[in-house]
Specification:
- The protein is an alpha+beta fold.
- It has one domain (4-113): 3-Layer(aba) Sandwich (Glutaredoxin), CATH 3.40.30.10.
- 32% of the residues lie in helices and 14% in strands.
- A four-stranded mixed beta sheet has the order 2-1-3-4, sandwiched between helices.
- A hairpin with a 2-residue loop joins strand 3 and strand 4 (101-104).
- The chain is globular, with a radius of gyration of 14 Å.
- It starts with a strand and ends in an 11-residue tail after the last strand.
- Its EC number is 1.20.4.1.
- This is Arsenate reductase.
- InterPro entries: Arsenate_reductase, Arsenate_reductase-like, Thioredoxin-like_sf.
- One of its GO terms (biological process) is response to arsenic-containing substance.
- It is an enzyme of class 1 (oxidoreductase).
Length: 115
């Protein structure tokens, strides 16, 4: 099974999902999305495939979220996608893609649904 994880090694949820994938005997393709962010089209597709909205896929912790006033409920999905493209740290993680689907693996055990 081919698996891709959009990974941030500084994130405990991301490290946990990666460990669970490896415990299943699979070495995934690891994309360091902070240095190699997905295209806007790919990010939108990941969000949709995971059954989320742009807001649901956005990291809402930290100064950047507040500085950019991203809690404003009037912001459209397009505006939120623009923010995530400009600042990949705003993309929540980890997104995991397998033949069985896409999940935002928070908590990490969510990855088991698609292994």
């Amino acid at each position: 099974m081919a698996i891709t994880i959009y990974h941030n090694n500084a994130c405990s949820n991301s490290r946990g999902a990666l460990a669970l994938i490896r415990e299943a005997g699979i070495e995934p393709e690891i994309i360091d999305y902070l240095n190699n962010p997905p295209t806007r089209e790919r990010l939108a597709a990941l969000i949709k495939a995971a059954g989320l909205t742009a807001r649901g896929a956005m990291r809402d912790k930290g100064d950047l979220y507040e500085q950019l006033n991203l809690a404003d409920p009037s912001l459209s999905d397009d505006a939120l996608l623009d923010a995530m493209m400009a600042h990949p740290a705003l993309i929540n993680r980890p997104f995991v893609v397998t033949d069985k689907g896409v999940r935002l693996c928070r908590p990490p055990e969510t990855v088991k649904e698609i292994l």
